[in-house]
Amino acid sequence: MSELIDSFEQLRLSQPLLETLKEIGYEAPSPIQAATIPPLLEGADVLGQAQTGTGKTAAFALPILERLNLAERLPQALVLAPTRELAIQVAEAFQGYARHLPGFHVLPIYGGQSMGIQLRHLKRGVHVVVGTPGRVMDHLRRETLSLAGLRTVVLDEADEMLRMGFIDDVDWILEQTPAERQIALFSATMPEPIRQVAHRHLREPREVKIKASTATVETVRQRYCQVGPQHKLDALTRVLEVEDADAVLIFVRTKIAATELSERLEARGYPSAALHGDMTQVLREKTIEQLKNNQLDIVVATDVAARGLDVSRISHVVNYDIPYDTEAYVHRIGRTARAGRTGDAILFVAPRELRMLRAIEKATRQPIERMQLPTQEAITGHRLAQFKQQVSEILGSQDLEFFQEVVAEIEREQEISAQDIAAALTWLAQRDRPFQFEDTIPSELERLPVRPEREPRSAPGRRERFAREGGKRDTDLDKVTYRLEVGHQHGATPQNIVGAIANEAGIESRYIGRIEIYDQYSTVDLPDGMPKEIFQHLKKVRVRQYPLKISRLDEADVGDQRPAPRRASTAKKIPREETNPPVARKVRKRDS
Questions:
Q1: Is the pTM of this model over 0.85?
Q2: What does this protein do (predicted)?
Q3: 102-131 pLDDT, tens per residue?
Q4: Domain that holds residue 118
Q5: Position 464 in a domain
Q6: Measured on CA atoms in the order 471, 472, 473, 475, is the torsion positive or negative?
Q7: Co-location of 130 and 201 in the same domain
Q8: Residues 313 and 169 reside in one and the same domain
Q9: What are phi and psi of 491, to 5 degrees?
Q10: Of the residues 209, 239, 267, the one at which a domain ends
Q11: CA separation, residue 376 to residues 295, 373, 438, 443 (Å)
């Protein structure tokens, strides 16, 4: 059935959801979505085997949203996830897909977050609950979470819940659900305990098995660079400057993004063209022909538009936007290293997208090496080397007798040296493309180390490595306390704040220190010396639809609620869970 479905319109989704999918760039359903959405819309149980990164969140979220009764403010769907990070990610996905469903509410619940916050949201009413098994059990035992109106239960990454020892908890939770409810169970593998759970609780499930592709080309060098969204254009400019590329194919998620990025590259002096689904076949073929015939070196494309694209001179594929699933990644990088050549694939990853990066590595069974952005000094050196090479080639291939007489004449008439004349001519030659490259990536962020692989807390050698690297931890950096104009009354959580700062400013969460949340505002400790452009950008960033309006605490007018000024500390504590927290309760950021 999935082979016959090549558009979301064929899945009988409502117009608000189709409109959202179009806006966020979903042009065609992935295999797991095409196979899973129809039976879930029919109300059938589903047993799905699919890797992380195959698009399964949309596969269960879209049918749930389609079948919701928004007039009923009570939990109609429960999604169980093994970790709080995944619970937050799934909840954010629901919120994104439901942007055109007014009144929709989703709540992530997990350990480490104040029970009081969760109780207030549950009391107000939510449609979808996404939670870790332990915290869901807590609410069920306290009778603060009612499953009376539950219609759908999703078990996401069931094998991970088994590995983490949650499978008995999952079994218990399923026993508390109504008899007439739909269950969708997703797991990358199907060990016997998972099959036993499926046998006990699922009714005649439709089985869906999606095998993630691992056919990445061995002749493609794969690299990734961690960069925040607001710096991606400058990062791309640096890559285009230094990489020895023949033709470059840049992938983005949406048609609008393809057109906009192409125009912005043109404005920076990089001739390029967009390639997307709204283009006529004639224009699409013309663009591809120009790429083949060396008339065009840069094309910005969406996934659907680049299907079947076979141009042997494409030396580099740049994933400007990380793909939604691993299949798309494999397809993208397969556009290079054609006809027996080697190729390069570069992936831009925001801090919050590192989970998808790991999913790609796991699915393809190939590591993606870290890379640092070329520095301004490296770009200047590269431009100088190119200029010197051009001068050398002209000296060896052109008749310069007439131009030598011109220089001699200027030298006689103006009584200046040939060296000064050469310097002036060099300035003229590089005026439109200065040797001294500048962009807006803050030098402070440029020097931040790339996030290392996470180690278990008990991993041997961690302490020895710390000593070897000089004994200075990331969290030992000098920090300044800032005030944010969002607090408990706005529904702000530490995770909201960390996510907003990490994603919008490109500052990794490990550089974000203590967070304290009050009723009207919050405070956060950030590294000293924040660049002005990032500071100005953060003022406009929103948490729960409210602007942060960030300001330094020692300069802010915080009235009677302001805590006494103090040196920022990076001590991290796990807050005690309180059913009735005080008004000015302090919530501290936990380790991930």
A1: no
A2: DEAD-box RNA helicase involved in various cellular processes at low temperature, including ribosome biogenesis, mRNA degradation and translation initiation.
A3: 999 999 998 877 888 899 999 999 999 999
A4: 2-209
A5: no
A6: positive
A7: yes
A8: no
A9: 80, 15
A10: 209
A11: 29, 9, 7, 9
